[in-house]
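Hi everyone, sorry if this is the wrong subforum. Our group has a chain we'd like a structural model of before ordering constructs, and none of us has done structure prediction before. Sequence below.
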Amino acid sequence: MATDNGRANDGQKPKTTDVNTTNINANNGDNGNPKSQRTDEVTDSQSPIAQTNGSTTQMSDNIHDNVDDDTDDSTDDDTKASTTLLKEKALDLHEKIQQRRVLVIWSIVAAVLVVIIVIAGCYAFWFSRHGEERDYQQLQALAQKPKGMTKQGGLPAFKASDYNPKAPSVDLYVDFFCPGCATVEKGLSTPLEKMQEARQINLYIHPLNFLDSKTENKYSTRSASAFAYIASQEPDKSLALSTALFEKGYQPNKNNNRNVSNQEIIEQALKAGVSKTVAENSTKGTYNDYVDKATKYTTERKELYVQMQDNFRFSTPTICINGTMWPYRHLHVIQDIEPTLVHSLGLHREQVGDAKITPSIGSDGKALAIQQKYLS
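Answer:
Right subforum, don't worry. Here is the predicted structure as tokens:
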């Protein structure tokens, strides 16, 4: 064993070395260059450095992949959060815009209402001061007026030739649908007729339609217009026609509210002595406009207002003596209306119908006060 080891030291190369060198040279083709061997050894996949570099690269790739995944998740969350925030801001902005729009709309509505109220208030104020004047002018401007119509819209119940400038005027304001008018007419028709025939008074009748809405088929307007036509053609039949239109059993009122035809009105006119032609033409609505204008003006005249329950307004029947309202409503009983009217005119009951006696108050005197015994 020692010899063998000595021969080896004498320069004989071991076989294993030759075989390995030969294999290396054969595999690398570099004529046995040691550097090539070392290089191959270094670059071999089994090299620790290579193994380390490979692991590092794989780890880096894994980290990169993990970072990318985390970054993607983080970006998605941020995007969702941003989107949600934007939606919330958009909804909040939309809500504010809607609220502002509603506020603007209500502000406009409120402003319009204020303007309307102001205009209405101004008109009401103006009308309270000038409404009567305006209605008066419209009454005077009628294209077709009944003959003999006074400035206040009254129609004479006498022929023009029977007018007495020294006698007091008596004005009756009536609506032919009014039951109270029928009661007053019944108590005054006889003395009024006698005094008118004796020219002791100048009687005027004002047919109105302010109760039209309560009637069937606008009876107040139709009857008042028919009366105006007949008063214009045959004024001396006016008082008799008034009596016929208030006749019990015929007159429609709030208690029966029956529908009266034009033919029935004509028949009542014929009963009052009106000529057939005039009676038949009276219901054609010739003076409807007059009735409307006269009613508007009359119901605006504050001097004709009375206290009616909780309202201060115009009401029928109304009686005026020499242009001033006569307070018959203060009577204890309505049956006393005849003697009290005669007294207020300045006559005694036995003087009624005496053409030789003119009422003491004359054409411009104030009516005498109603005697205390008749007052309630």
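For your construct planning: Confidence is low (pLDDT under 50) at residues 1-57. Residues 116 and 122 are 10 Å apart (CA to CA).
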